[in-house]
Each structure stands twice: as structure tokens, then as C-alpha cells.
Design goal:
The complex is a heterotrimer. By secondary structure, chain A is of the alpha/beta class. Chain A has helices at about 45-50, 55-60, 80-85, 105-115, 120-130, 145-160, 175-190, 205-210, 230-235, 235-240, 250-260, 270-280; strands spanning about 5-15, 20-30, 35-40, 65-70, 75, 85-90, 165-170, 195-200, 215-220, 220-225. Chain A is built from twelve helices and ten strands. In chain A, a hairpin with an 8-residue loop joins strand 1 (about 5-15) and strand 2 (about 20-30). The radius of gyration of chain A is 20 Å and the shape is globular. In chain A, about 55% of the residues are buried. Chain B is about 40% helix and about 20% strand. A six-stranded mixed beta sheet of chain B has the order 6-7-8-3-9-10. A four-stranded antiparallel beta sheet of chain B has the order 2-1-4-5, with no helix packed on it. Chain C is mostly helical. Chain C has one domain. Chain C has helices at about 20-35, 40-55, 60-85, 110-130, 135-145, 150-160, 165-180, 190-220, 240-260, and strands spanning about 90, 105. A two-stranded antiparallel ribbon of chain C has the order 1-2. In chain C, helix 1 (about 20-35) runs antiparallel to helix 4, helix 1 (about 20-35) runs parallel beside helix 9 and helix 3 (about 60-85) packs antiparallel against helix 4 (about 110-130). Classes of the chains: A alpha/beta, B alpha/beta, C mainly alpha. Chains A and C meet through strand 6, helix 4, helix 5 and helix 6 of A and helix 8 of C.
Chain lengths: ~280, ~280, ~270
């Protein structure tokens, strides 16, 4: 089956800058994958996110080379509203991306723009709010919600437009632990229950290790690694170069391996580490 | 009152104008030279409590005494020489055309003589390694450097107590480590350091005292080794201990709390696992 | 600060369609501009106060508007007293100052014109809440669009209003941050210091708001803002008998007022 997203040698340079923000990015994503993008601040992760739905290059006057194809559509040839039916984008700051007076209006906004019939919009709103666990919040003012609730509303807004791919740019960086938990849980279910393709930018390596099927590492605008979480998190020098700290359990097991303990595959989650250590202790 | 107490809260309660009671009867003492982390969900009262330390908020009931002075009749600027408060986002306060000007701004506003200001600026630039950047425009600096400038502005008033509101939020791991290193240095120089964070590994690796807030009250207060032992209570507050702490607990360690990767590795090597050679031997 | 995201749901005006309220307010605005005689403007003000009373909006808002308006009103009054080419001289103040057109006297019609100007502005300022506080922003937007205002324009107007609270809270945050670094006060001190203090507020505020607006642009576009074709509006609005009544009264008022004006009345 055709990949749902294809990046082919994509390079983008913001106006008045010498170095490109992202350079020669190539990768493809299949339907249902859960892809995590990690990298240091300033690596170009947000720029990359904006390429999926045409925000780059249309809203930022820069120069772009290469091609981005989403659901068979070229992001350069097609306007943002057309791509918006296939790709949804949730940005980092929960509060700033909500601008309507009620949650109902907020979630309706995208569908209204697409000109969907009123009844369809009402159904989609109900389903989206139900999925993110905010049924009953229709009349609430977005500004009065907690950070976690705001991000879930943002996800509902995008979900109501029924995209195939959801791009989430550091959705939990500014949230408290409970908000993060709520949002991450929704993201995991989006992938598991609705088979949505997820592209998540995050610094939460524990979450990446548990849910992502694939990890892309971006550094200085270049894609330096594209592999499974197990392989990515075992490459200590690559991670250090990219200013990333792998899950603590990986660090522990990597250290033990250096000390001479026989560990073939570095476990990356808590559960698999517990098992591996018990096996080591019992001499299996 | 012992001269070692720098902050004393007695029966402190705070109700916001909209009727929300954010703090309930808090009794708290912080001594000179302590290194305290405040954690808790948004709305738990941690930020409300900490804002009483420099007079940003005044008690609606009870008293707050800082460095021997009751805060209620004092202006924030009067307390700024005793308590340096550094907000999360440096861009909420930087506006001058050079780093040196930013650092000089506070002392100038407080009416200090120009010669003294010059001295202070030079001293602070040296302390924070900002000499090379002193003529640069703050907006041209990286986020990490802008944060340093924000800390420099607080340092220019030479307070004994520092408060950092979420110093690492929104940054990558190395950026966070860099600012924490700076904060560690301040503490090593004898300052009393208080920080608010959601990052538990940060708390485990840097703080000497952890205060967990919940619904306007102090739920836990002690050294990290003790606080992170209460895994059930922390879970009920939706707070997650560092991964290594949970790993140790899952492996059955109950007598002590592991707080860092290094501690974990040492415990595994010395107490939990057999020697590496033996493990290798058995695997054959 | 008035939070335009809250509406007075208990007000009888709440039930009206946004369009009739818009047209009613427009009629009041036009008459406020057309009349310049203080008695006529006063009559208009009385009508507005009557509508305010029917609308059951809190009177505190008028007081707040007065507080803000007071200094401006005084300035306007003084300016008109000196600059209006009055004919009915009352008291001689000084020698004529030719180049500003001051004939040296305090004139009755000068005072009258000044009062009328103040009242006209006051009528406009006080009638705006009648619309804005009884009409939820989405309904207001739908009303504007149905009155053939282009969607983008109506959107900008209503969204700008709904973003005021977030600018306010950002401003508070910046104020706090500046206080923490030694800024003594924003309300006292030497003029130069206060000006600098204002820069300390405005620069982060403007930059921060600009950054936010970029994020908003991205978020809106990503949700297909500006998509071609017919846009659906979830909010439905229908005219009722009450709306016809309001339209009728507004038309009557407007026609009556303009007729009086054309007959030469209502001006000094």
C-alpha cells in the first residue's frame, strides 16, 4: 500500500536566514504508524511539522525545495484547506490555538470552514468530544479550562475534521503531570482505536519508548536517524550529540552492559527492564 | 525567631478575588541555604504559595515573614533585594537593547548610584559567564542565554533567596541541565534556592527538600529519599516518581529510594545482580 | 475590564436577533452624528437610557465608562468653548486670539456645542454595550455575515474582541515580572521612569502578542480557515416578531430624526 506521507529531499529556508531550517529530509510513513520526532530545541522540528499541511511554505515566506506528499496530494500544489481534510495539526501552546467563545464553536470551526452540512457537524462534534472525554463541555469557555482540557479540545477540533494523519507538536511540554497524562492517553487511543497515523514531537522519552513504533531524530535541520525506538535509544553517542536523554532505564542498562553484563537488546520500557534484570539476576 | 529561618509562613491562607481558596492554613519554615522543590498539579497552590515569598501575593489570613520582615506592608520591589524571582519565560520581561542595560535596569529603578550599578553589572556578567554577550541585543540570543540574562537581572539586586518558576519547562534536556547547573552553583554559593517544577527526575537529582502540594495544602514535605517512598500517595496525586525510582520499587527494593541513574547502577551491581563474569558464565 | 466572552443572558435584548440590534445601534449612531444641538442629543441619550433600562444591564458599566470618559469629556468641552465660532457672548475672557479663531468671549453657543459634542460621544460609547453585551460573539458574527459583511472581516472584528482577555492576562504577567526585578511601581515615580516602565510593559507585550498571533494564524489555517466555497454556520438565527418591532422602531426613529434635521432642526 502507498505510504500516506512521503517527504522527498525537503529543504526549507526561512527568509533572511543563511542556513536552512530543515535540510534534505526524506522519509515515508505508512497508515497506522506511530512516529515520534525527537531532537534538541531549534533543530527544526516545528518547521518539519508545518510541512505536512502546507503551512510551510505558504504562511512563512521562505524558499522550499523537495516534495511533501500527503494522501497522494502534493503540499505545494494544493491549498492548505484541501490538505486540512487529511492532516490535522495541534501546536504546543494550548491556550493560543483556541480562539472561539465556546468549546462547541471551537470544535465546529474546522467543519464550518469546510462547508459540511449542519447535521454532520453536530455529529462530528459529539463524537470528537466523546473521544477526548469532554462531553458536556460544549458551553464552556476555552480560557477557563485546564491546560490538559484545552489540548484535548484542540485535538477534538482537529479530529472532527476526520483527518488520516495527526501531527502533534510538543502537545504536553507546558502541561502539568495530570494534563500530560490525559493528553498522552488520548493520543495513544487515537492510534490504537481509530488507527490514526500519529506524528508526535515530544521530549517525553518514556512515552516514546512505550508507544512509538518508529523514532526520527532531527539535529541541526537534518534527519540523523530513522529507526525503531529500541535501536535509537541504544545509540548513546548519537543521542548525546542530539542533546537527548534516553529513558533512564536505557541509561542504566547501557551502563551495565559496559560493565560487562550480558545484555543483547537494551530494554527501553520499565516492564521490559524489570524482566531483563530479573533474568540477569536469576542467571537465565 | 532563629536567625536561620529565612521564610516563615504561619497559618497562611489565600483566597483569590474570585472566591477560589488557593491556600489553606499553611505553616512552613524554610532555612537559610536550603534547596527546596515545590511540586504538585496546576491548581494545587504551589505557585500561589511561592508568590507570597516576594510579596507578589499577600496573605488573606495569617502571616509571611521573609528575612525577618513581614511581607504584608511591603511592596514587591522592596522585597526584590531579598528574594529574586525568575519567571518561566524570559521574554515576559526582557526589553532593553543590550544585556548590560537589562542587568542595570533593576538597580537603576531602585535608585542605586551609577558607580555601584557599573560594579554590579560587571560582577554579574562575570558570575554568569555573560561577558561576551554584554553588548548584544537580548532578542538575538538563544533561549538558554536569554534565561541566563533573566537570572542575571535577579542576581543584580543581590538577593539571598532565589525562586525559579519552572526553570526547565519547554526546553530540551541539555538546556534544562545548563540552567540547573547554574542554580546548583547559586546554592553552592550559599543562597537559599526554591524552584517549582513538574519534572520529577530534576527534583530527585537536585533538590534537598521536596514539598508536594495538593488542593491548597502541603501533602508531603521532606528530603527526596523520603518523599519518593510514598509511591501510593504520589500516584493518587497523579505524580510520577523518576523512572529509576519506580524501577527499583518494581524490583522489590523497599528499604531505600533510588533517585538517580548512578545510584541505580551501583545498587544493581553491588546488591541485586551477581558479578558480571558469573552472569556471562551462566549464560553459556 | 469588560469581558466580551460573557453575555448577559438574563437581558430581554438577548432574545433578539443580532441583525435587529445591529441596525438599532446603527440608527442611534447616525442620529448622534446628525444632531448637534444639546437638547436633541440629550433626548437621544434619554432614549438610550430607556433601552438600557429595558435591557436590564448593570448600571456599574455606565459608571465605569464615565470614569474613563471623564477627562476626555473635559478636554472636549474646553476645546469647544475656545474654538467654536460662537455668537451669543456671555463673559469676556481676554483679547481675541486671531489665529485660533478665538473672539475673546465665553459664548453660550460655544458651551452648548461643547456639551453636545460630549453628549454625542457619550451616547455612542454607552449604546455599544447594548449590542455587545447582549449578543454572544458567534451570534454577532453570523448577524454581520447575514448583513453582507465579508466573513473574513467579520471574523477579524469578533475574534479581536474575544482575544482581549488574553492580552490582559499577558500584561498582568509581564507587570509581575517587572515588579520582581525592581520596578517600583507603574503608577508613581518620575515621568521618565514611568515612560521607561511603560516600555518594559509594551515591548514584551507587543512581541509576545505578535508571536501568539503567528501561532494563531497557523492554528486557524490548519483548520481550513479561508477555504473556498460556502461556509456553514452552526448558529442559526431567525427573525421574530420582537425583531420586527425593534426594526420598525429603529426605522421610525431614524426617519423621524433625519426629517427633523432636514427641516433645519437639531443644530445650533
Amino acid at each position: 500500500m502507498e505510504p500516506i506521507v512521503i517527504f522527498n529531499q525537503v529543504t526549507f529556508c526561512y527568509p533572511h536566514t543563511e542556513r536552512p531550517a530543515i535540510e534534505e529530509i526524506s522519509f515515508s510513513i505508512n497508515v497506522g504508524e506511530f512516529v515520534a520526532l525527537i531532537g534538541p530545541t531549534g533543530a527544526g522540528k516545528s518547521t518539519l511539522c508545518y510541512c505536512f499541511n502546507g503551512v510551510v511554505p505558504r504562511l512563512f515566506n521562505g524558499s522550499m525545495a523537495g516534495m511533501v506528499t500527503v494522501a497522494g496530494l502534493d503540499s505545494y500544489q494544493n491549498d492548505i484547506p484541501i490538505l486540512a481534510e487529511h492532516v490535522g495539526l495541534v501546536v504546543q501552546n494550548a491556550r493560543t490555538q483556541l480562539f472561539n467563545v465556546t468549546v462547541l464553536q471551537e470544535v465546529a470551526f474546522g467543519c464550518e470552514n469546510l462547508g459540511l452540512p449542519r447535521r454532520v457537524i453536530q455529529e462530528r462534534i459529539a463524537e470528537a468530544l466523546d473521544f477526548v472525554g469532554l462531553t458536556g463541555f460544549e458551553d464552556r469557555e476555552p480560557a477557563t479550562l485546564s491546560g490538559g482540557q484545552q489540548q484535548r479540545v484542540a485535538i477534538a477540533c482537529v479530529l472532527a475534521m476526520n483527518p488520516d494523519v495527526l501531527i502533534l507538536d510538543e502537545p504536553t511540554s507546558e502541561l502539568d503531570p495530570i494534563g500530560s497524562e490525559q493528553v498522552m492517553e488520548v493520543i495513544a487511543r487515537l492510534n490504537k482505536e481509530l488507527n490514526k497515523t500519529i506524528f508526535l514531537v515530544t521530549h517525553d522519552m518514556e512515552f516514546v519508548a512505550t508507544y512509538a513504533t518508529r523514532v526520527l531524530v532531527l539535529n541541526h535541520g537534518r534527519l540523523v536517524e530513522d529507526n525503531s525506538p529500541e535501536i535509537v535509544f541504544s545509540q548513546a553517542s548519537l543521542l548525546k550529540e542530539a542533546r537527548i536523554r534516553p529513558p533512564q532505564v536505557c541509561e542504566v542498562m547501557s551502563d551495565l552492559r559496559e560493565q560487562g553484563y550480558r545484555i543483547n537488546q537494551i530494554p527501553i520500557t520499565l516492564e521490559s527492564t524489570v524482566r531483563a534484570l530479573q533474568e540477569l539476576r536469576d542467571g537465565i | 525567631m532563629e536567625s536561620n529561618d529565612v521564610i516563615q509562613c504561619a497559618r497562611l491562607s489565600h483566597t483569590y478575588p474570585n472566591g477560589v481558596q488557593a491556600l489553606l492554613n499553611i505553616d512552613l519554615t524554610i532555612q537559610r541555604g536550603e534547596y527546596v522543590a515545590f511540586v504538585g498539579q496546576n491548581g494545587s497552590g504551589k505557585t500561589t504559595l511561592v508568590k507570597h515569598f516576594n510579596g507578589l501575593l499577600k496573605p488573606t489570613e495569617g502571616t509571611v515573614i521573609v528575612d525577618g520582615f513581614e511581607t504584608k506592608p511591603l511592596k514587591v520591589s522592596a522585597l526584590s533585594c531579598r528574594v529574586g524571582y525568575v519567571f518561566q519565560n524570559p521574554d515576559d520581561m526582557l526589553f532593553c537593547s543590550s544585556v548590560a542595560e537589562e542587568i542595570a535596569y533593576g538597580p537603576k529603578m531602585l535608585g542605586q548610584p551609577p558607580e555601584k550599578i557599573q560594579q554590579v553589572v560587571e560582577h554579574v556578567l562575570a558570575e554568569l559567564g555573560l561577558e561576551e554577550l554584554c553588548e548584544m541585543h537580548p532578542f538575538a540570543l538563544s533561549l538558554g542565554d536569554r534565561q541566563r540574562v533573566a537570572v542575571a537581572c535577579a542576581l543584580s539586586l543581590n538577593p539571598e533567596i532565589f525562586v525559579f518558576d519552572e526553570p526547565t519547562t519547554g526546553q530540551d534536556y541539555f538546556g534544562g541541565e545548563s540552567i540547573m547547573h547554574l542554580i546548583d552553583q547559586l546554592h553552592a554559593a550559599g543562597k537559599t534556592v526554591i524552584f517549582i517544577t513538574h519534572d520529577m527526575p530534576l527534583v530527585a537529582e537536585h533538590a534537598r527538600r521536596v514539598i508536594v502540594m495538593n488542593q491548597g495544602q502541603i501533602a508531603l514535605d521532606g528530603p527526596p529519599q523520603e518523599v519518593f517512598q510514598h509511591s501510593v500517595l504520589l500516584r493518587s496525586l497523579s505524580l510520577r516518581s523518576p523512572q529509576v525510582t519506580r524501577l527499583a520499587q518494581n524490583l522489590g527494593l523497599s528499604k531505600r529510594t533510588i533517585l538517580s541513574v548512578k545510584e541505580m547502577r551501583e545498587w544493581l551491581e553491588n546488591e541485586y545482580l551477581p558479578a558480571p563474569q558469573a552472569a556471562r558464565g551462566i549464560v553459556h | 475590564m469588560i469581558n466580551l466572552n460573557q453575555t448577559a443572558k438574563n437581558s430581554p435584548l438577548y432574545r433578539l436577533d443580532g441583525r435587529s440590534k445591529l441596525i438599532g445601534i446603527l440608527a442611534i449612531f447616525i442620529l448622534a452624528i446628525v444632531f448637534s444641538h444639546p437638547f436633541y442629543v440629550l433626548a437621544l441619550l434619554v432614549i438610550v437610557m430607556l433601552v438600557w433600562w429595558i435591557a436590564r444591564l448593570p448600571f456599574q458599566i455606565i459608571v465605569d465608562i464615565l470614569k474613563v470618559f471623564f477627562v476626555i469629556a473635559l478636554i472636549i468641552l474646553l476645546v469647544q468653548v475656545f474654538f467654536y465660532p460662537g455668537k451669543i457672548n456671555l463673559v469676556r475672557l481676554s483679547d481675541p486670539i486671531k489665529f485660533i479663531g478665538f473672539n475673546g468671549y465665553l459664548t453660550l453657543d460655544g458651551i452648548g456645542f461643547g456639551i453636545a459634542m460630549v453628549l454625542r460621544l457619550f451616547v455612542i460609547m454607552v449604546s455599544a454595550p447594548l449590542l455587545v453585551m447582549t449578543t454572544p460573539l458567534p451570534d454577532l458574527m453570523v448577524a454581520l455575515v447575514k448583513l453582507k459583511v465579508p466573513y473574513r472581516f467579520a471574523f477579524i472584528m469578533t475574534t479581536a474582541l474575544s482575544l482581549l482577555p488574553s492580552i490582559q492576562s499577558r500584561s498582568n504577567l509581564i507587570q509581575q515580572a517587572q515588579l520582581c526585578r525592581g520596578v517600583t511601581d507603574f503608577d508613581s515615580g518620575k515621568l521618565w521612569d514611568r515612560l521607561r516602565g511603560t516600555a518594559g510593559l509594551l515591548v514584551p507585550l507587543i512581541l509576545g502578542s505578535f508571536r501568539d498571533s503567528q501561532t494563531l494564524d497557523v492554528a486557524m489555517s490548519s483548520r481550513a480557515f479561508g477555504a473556498p466555497g460556502r461556509r456553514t454556520f452552526l448558529i442559526e438565527s431567525h427573525f421574530s416578531l420582537l425583531d420586527d418591532l425593534v426594526l420598525g422602531l429603529s426605522a421610525l426613529l431614524l426617519i423621524g430624526g433625519v426629517t427633523l434635521r432636514l427641516l433645519g432642526l437639531g443644530i445650533l
